[in-house]
Amino acid sequence: MLYLLVSYTHEFYMVSMRDGVRLATDVYKPTIYFGQLHTILIRTPYDRTATGLSYLIPYITDIKGYALVIQSLRGFNGSEGEPSVFRTDGWGELQDGYDAVQWIISQPWSSGKVCGSWLSAMGITQYLLSGTLHPAYKCATPIIGAHSIYHYAAFYGGEFRKNLVENWLSGLGVPHLIDTVASHPLYDSTWYIMNLNERIPDVNVPMYHLAGWFDIFLESQIEAFINLQFNGGPLARGNQKIIIGPWGHLTFGQTVQGDLIFPSNAALSVDDLMNILGRWYDYWLKGDNNGVIDEPPVKFYIIGINEWATSDTFPPRGVYYRKWYLHGDGSLRLSPPTSDSFSVYVYDPNDPTPSIGGNEMDLPGGTGPKDQRPLLSRSDVLVFQSDVLTDTVVVIGNIIGKLYFESDRYDTDFVIRIADVYPDGRAILVSDGIIKARFRYGFDREVLITPGQIDSVEVKVWATAWAFLPGHRIMVIISSANYPRFEANPNNGGPFVRDDTFKLVATNKIYHSPQYPSYINIPMYPSTAVREMIARGNRSEIKVEGSRICSSDYHSIYDISGRMLFQGVGCSRNLKAGVYMVKLRKRILKVIIR
Asked: Which of 108, 158, 280, 436 supports an S-S bond with 208, CB 3.0-4.6 Å?
């Protein structure tokens, strides 16, 4: 993307919040504009000039004609006050996002309409700002962000997200806040004002969510989309879109992920991203009827088949669950066990089962879909796998593991990894999940294990859209650690302490018997329906609206002499009657304007 004419203006302000603390704020505007400006707002803990904004600033100001406001969160990069890990960005006593919008609409150049944008932590601030219910906050485009800090950024499955929290806060220069996060291991009032689920029925913000199958906040964005799409306020309900690509957090939009290389159709270029954002801004701020609202609410990439599909919800209608049972011989079958048996492993928190890939930003050895074979010879894991598949098994949604277990400790963790075993022996991680046993009845209460007594847990494995192809196997890997992706449970049953030195070895049993049939409940989708869903996802419509040619996909329009008249997404200007050629992906279409 190249912008040759850069003509925006820049102004700097220290904007006062309701408690008098002032936040460093940059305002960019087109040099020439008429009337008042709609505003795109980005609130960030990062450097205000180092967030990919070399693309975004001229696009928003010079190309789209909006004002762009970039504000540092309190305590960061020139803003006053103490940093608080988003605590002042929700709807508590202090509401910095709300106050930022209020300041914007009080400016003489403002139209009174604001839309949120950008990625990661800036996606989080958009979700939290929407929960403040400011009437001028008209839309949002959260990219790889989280809508509930406790459930998806700090304590997924009740276990501390050690790698993410420690590395991120240390990288921001606020390592003292790690213990602030770790000191609230239960879902309590500390977290309510940072969980958009607490406000869903009142939220009135249309959002375009962009997520990745290997991203750190995948589960959060799917949940936010579903809750707002079906249970949000009048303007949020039915006005949500989500794209889920085969991308990670630091590898967003790229084709190389972990040990896999995806074809070019998996890439998301800067141009593509800007077009998605720009069309959402234009529809909700300018009222531009560009067709974006008429597109399917969900677009997602099916790994293995390596094609895009669309749906009106996620998982798509038609998904059915099948239980794949664990058996004493290490097999994974659709039939339940017929004899009593259990498998035993010993989990030593001094040597926890290591993380190999997964939905993280950064891990030793890499992230995303990594080969799990180094785990398979460890004595602290159990491995179950299906027979070689003769048909394609398409899995779309969350796999749920039901484990009947027994432990000799008052607390321990249970981890399920799902892997795709290739014909060459690679066991590529599909997704994983974890539950701290004491939270098996909810994250707002602790119920310890009774040692020696058979109990059960459900482990929610992160969502996927993955096709296990003929010749492959489905593998289930069970352990009690996934370190350092998550804190290693010390098994001592005491209150949570980060890096607890009081560690006990746990002997854990997983039952697979008629009375206690542990299983993996897999959301499957009919192969015939998959073909139609993919066809819809790859179908790009060209429409003639009066004397204009329009498409929701990136396209080029040429006259019969070969002169290019339009390139981009949306509609051309009015064209004369005649024959035109439209290049759409790899197709050339003839369109007649009469």
From this structure: 280
Domain hosting residue 546, numbered range: 541-593
CB 111 within 8 A of CB 287: no
**Cβ–Cβ under 8 Å, residues 262 and 255:** yes
Angstrom distance (rounded) from CA 4 to CA 239: 35
Which of the 8 DSSP states describes residue 463? P
- For residue 182, the SS3 value is helix
Do 436 and 519 contact (CB within 8 A), yes or no? no
- What value does the mean pLDDT of the chain take? 94
Please, are residues 360 and 162 in contact by the beta-carbon 8 Å criterion? no
In sign, the C-alpha dihedral spanning 555, 557, 563, 564 is negative
In this prediction, residues 10-36 reach a mean pLDDT of 97
Residue pLDDT, tens place only, 254-283? 999 999 999 999 999 998 999 999 999 999
Owner of token pair 């997704």: 431
Give the tokens for residue 319.
Answer: 């998904």
Q: Are 120 and 143 in contact (CB under 8 A)?
A: yes
Residues 341, 224 share a domain: no
Structural domain includes residue 475: yes
Structurally, the chain folds into a number of domains equal to 3
The pLDDT tens digits of the residues spanning 448-487 come to: 999 999 999 999 999 999 999 999 999 999 999 999 999 9
Q: Residue 284, exposed/middle/buried by CB under 10 A (0-12, 13-18, 19+)?
A: buried
Whether residue 116 contacts residue 60, with contact meaning beta carbons closer than 8 Å, is answered with no
The neighbour count for residue 130, using CB atoms within 10 Å, is: 32
Distance CA 398, CA 48 (A): 37
Is residue 522 located within the same domain as residue 487? yes
Provide the 10 A C-beta neighbour count for residue 330: 13
Whole-prediction pTM value?
Answer: 0.91
What phi, psi does 377 have (nearest 5°)? -95, 0
- Dihedral in degrees, nearest 10, Cα atoms 480, 482, 484, 488: -10
The tens digit of pLDDT for each residue in 382-410 reads 999 999 999 999 999 999 999 999 999 99
